Amino acid sequence: MATDGAASSSGYVGPLLTDHYQLTMAYAYWQGGRADEPAVFDLFFRTPPFQGEFCVFAGLDDVLSFLDAYAFTDDDVAFLRSGVLADADPAFFSWLTALRPSALTVRALPEGTVAFPHVPLMIVSGPLALVQLLETTLLVLVNFASLVATNAARHRLAAGRAARLLEFGLRRAQGPDGAMTASKYAYVGGFDGTSNVSAGRAWGIPTVGTHAHSFAQCFSSLDDLAVTTIAAPVGVGAGDGGGGGGGGGGGAAAAAANGAADGAARPPPVPFLPTVLAIRERLGYDTKDGELAAFVSYAQSFPRSFLALVDTYDTLASGVPNYICVAAALLAVGYTPRGLRLDSGDLALLSKRARGLLVAADGALGLGGALVAASSIVASNDISESTLHSLRSQGHAVDAFGIGTNLVTCAAQPSLGCVFKLVRLGGAPKVKLSEDVAKLSIPGEKAAYRLYGSEGTPLVDLMALAAEPPPAVGVPVLCRHPFVEGSRCLVRPARVECLYRLRDRVAEQVWALPAEHTRSLNPTPYKVSVSQALFALTHKLWLAEAPLRTLS
């Protein structure tokens, strides 16, 4: 996927995309002479989303673009002087405009890494006030991106490896920025394409689409067709497939342009509607003429990428048969159709019956399987992760799914809940306590490793102090639960990966996890541990910082 920093985030992303209190804290640090103290913050999550056991880290590209351009402008300073920091010492604004990201060190999991609770997604080091100013912006860039990427990965697990997944959520997203973020990170999470043309331009994501019900409704009879012919395929013989299932730019106009560019004489158009009607008569179909006219018109414009929406009137009595007539006619003149889309009804049942109609027509027309092979069945209609699991359990004949609302809005869980916590200041480890043990932060500057077993599956993610030697293959390492004294195990790793160097793709990591960690119902928690030294430091600071109550 192409990455363009200018396109990766909206015009709102800058130093002022932060919370009021970040600026007031920065001023207090500066006024107190602490702004430049070396600090380390961890960005991590405590609870995996969607009642699962993993999260796909995303948003790093946007974070790095933000940091590369980080600088307070004169307009930013003028706004702060007029409101948030109206009473601040003028010298503070000179310090503020001099801030540059070169003072920072960022260590992060690569984009698309499968991550687990408490393991830092990013570790940001630098002057205290500067790092503090980044907190809100880093969280807003990582939280939703990671949530969408995780949601996409879970949909991929539910649909299986073979199905094509298409993101159709632009019109349902939470505003333009939410739509662009969702399109980008659904692709990172394992989707194959998007309906969002702007996202396609920005990041090179394949764009896909059919037509709307309104297109079919615009035709009342075959008399609505302007012409009854179709452009002859350029550079191929009739019946040889017409260039396969090419992309959405394969229409008649595009073919004509290609012929002109090649300097070749343009072959005359060939009859098309008569072929369609002859096929309908041969198959004995009694279908709606207006819908058939719409399909013919669309095929005339896009003969190399014809995919019809078949449920405007009656899916099995008219829509699928009309698709079959037009698709078979395309094959007859040398093009390859793409398929049909179901957008309502019992998708499992309709997909199987549609496949049955395709098989029967293919046999009746003597096409030798060409019609069936060319015709993908695409399903949409408010599909969710649970819908995909249900369809798999019922059995279906769907080849691709168009998924919108439940993907881009993350309807099953609207936020992720990453946090940004101070873990080291001026050389001293820091811990954040809580009445809830799960919210205790793990102190110190850390390294993280993924330890694999002899069968090649990951066993545990181990956090250790950055100064500790890394675990070694074949050497037992004591892995402690961060907070539970008695929970520990010895792991003899067959392979060790430093998480901040991992470069595997999302799909490879998700499918590599044992099924008990990725199943949708009651997944087994994945082990996240700390080294003995980090365990000792955590509990030492825990006891030192926890108040000792006196009861009387």
Our Rg estimate from Cα atoms comes to: 29 Å
**Class from secondary-structure proportions:** alpha/beta
The first-to-last residue Cα distance is: 65 Å
* CATH domain fold name of the domain at 159-232 and 269-409: TIM Barrel
Proportion of β residues?
15-25%
| Major sheet strand order | 7-6-13-12-11-10
Largest sheet: 6 strands, parallel
Q: In CATH terms, what is the architecture of the domain at 159-232 and 269-409? A: Alpha-Beta Barrel
- If you average the pLDDT, what whole number results? 89
> What's the CATH C level of the domain at 159-232 and 269-409?
Alpha Beta
Helix count, per DSSP?
Answer: 19
As residue ranges, the low-confidence spans are: 4-8, 236-261
Shape: elongated
Counting DSSP E segments of at least 2 residues, the number of strands comes to 21
Tell me the name of the CATH homologous superfamily of the domain at 159-232 and 269-409. Answer: Aldolase class I
**Level of helix content?**
25-40%
Give a written overview of the molecule.
This protein is of the alpha/beta class and 552 residues long. It has 19 helices and 21 strands. The strands form six sheets. The chain has a six-stranded parallel β-sheet with strand order 7-6-13-12-11-10. Helix 15 links the parallel strand 12 and strand 13. Helix 1 packs antiparallel against helix 5 and helix 5 runs parallel beside helix 15. The longest helix has 32 residues.
